[in-house]
Amino acid sequence: MRVSWDIFCNVVDNYGDIGVTWRLARQLVAEQGFAVRLWVDDLAAFCRVCPAADEQAAAQLQQGVEVRRWCADWSPVEAADVVIEAFACQLPAAYVAAMAARVRPSLWLNLEYLSAEDWVGGCHGLPSLQPKGLQKFFFFPGFTSDTGGLLREAGLLERRRAFQQDPQARQDFLRGLGVAPRADARLMSLFAYENPGLASWLDVLAADVQPSHLLVPEGRIVADLLRWLQLDALAVGTVQVRGSLTVQVLPFVSQDDYDRLLWSCDFNAVRGEDSFVRAQWAGRPLLWQIYPQPEDAHLDKLEAFLALYTEALSPAATAALLAQWRAWNSGAVMGESWQALLEVWPELTAHAQSWCSQQAAQTDLAAALAQFYRNWL
Ligand code: TRH
């Protein structure tokens, strides 16, 4: 009998909660051979990252994962060998009782949000006692060897490199999205929350000597883009040109196609958690907009990552990167920091590759979870 895993995902907002759990579920099936049920309370969000899915189905099989609608009105099921509550979501009380009632109680894990902060390593894997004699373990993704690592599918970097070395594959992929950049254009993607700093960045791109082609997946930043373009609407796929800048809104694509988009671009602006990691695996310079938290708690996380990411950079590249990421995350003007970044572009490009290789030397998160389970047995 295959070891069974239940992953519970409560979609708070956006696509990161479902994005991470769907990716993890697929990998636990494909690479670890587990039987995985993914319980999700918002199937519409799931359908965005997995367009083949059925928004109405109470149960469906997608890429080997049994995807279940998680209803408020819970119908009892048998508890799995391993149970992941993603991002501290609240499991149904009846399900927790079923976990405890098993001959061998389930292994209960809380998968935490990604953070580069120092304390994460010390808390990774710690247990906490729960009612009914159960224990819950905290599992932290992270960038250092004392954490659970990052989600990275087997062969991902090989696939990425092959794609990037094949101009025809890139061209075909982009053409499928209706994108045909000029040969000399800097191709960039922009996946972001609302940001008052956008206009100042677009201004410098439009005035630049080098052409840029900006691809914007439809979503929260589009209103700022329209304001700058002085348009009321912009149909997906339509091209708008302002000076040296070409802008194009793209449809929201599957996770695998979003990877290809990141691999195709020279520069990627990403947000939240999962797209942030995927941009790192793309091996290209990136700009991260962190998910904003009350009382600016996210700024500590931003600084923690910046400290790690810039460790091996020159002072000039460090200064440029810090200025740009801080400006973007505070909604400040972007013109000056973008110009400074262009001056250290080759170094940042090389660094994106070496950072990616360094991170890929760690055990990936799915393998680390499987190992944690085996050690617990
Ligand atoms: O959508 P997000 O802003 O999600 C956020 C963060 O996860 C944040 O930490 C969390 O607290 C909050 O949600 C609730 O950004 P993120 O994490 O990058 O997730 C986006 C997902 O959407 C990711 O899996 C990539 C995927 N995606 C596609 O599949 N296709 C697309 O076209 C795009 C643009 C994204």
SSE diagram, text form:
Elements: E1 4-9, H1 16-30, E2 35-40, H2 43-49, E3 59-62, E4 65-69, E5 82-86, H3 93-101, E6 107-111, H4 119-123, E7 127-129, E8 135-139, H5 156-164, H6 167-176, E9 186-190, H7 198-207, E10 212-217, H8 222-229, E11 239-242, E12 245-250, H9 255-264, E13 267-271, H10 274-281, E14 286-289, H11 298-309, H12 315-330, H13 335-343, H14 345-360, H15 365-376
Parallel strand pairs: 1-2, 1-5, 2-4, 5-6, 6-8, 9-10, 9-13, 10-12, 13-14
Antiparallel strand pairs: 3-4, 7-8, 11-12
The protein binds 2'-deoxy-thymidine-beta-L-rhamnose.
Quickly list its features.
377 residues, alpha/beta, Rossmann fold, 2 domains, eight-stranded mixed sheet, six-stranded mixed sheet, binds 2'-deoxy-thymidine-beta-L-rhamnose
Can you walk me through this structure?
With 377 residues, the chain is of the alpha/beta class. It has two domains: 4-150 and 363-376, Rossmann fold; 156-360, Rossmann fold. 41% of the residues lie in helices and 18% in strands. The protein has 15 helices and 14 strands. The protein has helices at 16-30, 43-49, 93-101, 119-123, 156-164, 167-176, 198-207, 222-229, 255-264, 274-281, 298-309, 315-330, 335-343, 345-360, 365-376; strands at residues 4-9, 35-40, 59-62, 65-69, 82-86, 107-111, 127-129, 135-139, 186-190, 212-217, 239-242, 245-250, 267-271, 286-289. It has an eight-stranded mixed sheet with strand order 3-4-2-1-5-6-8-7, with helices on one face. Strand 11 and strand 12 (245-250) form a beta hairpin. It is globular. The mean pLDDT is 97. 2'-deoxy-thymidine-beta-L-rhamnose (TRH) binds next to helix 1, helix 9 and helix 10.
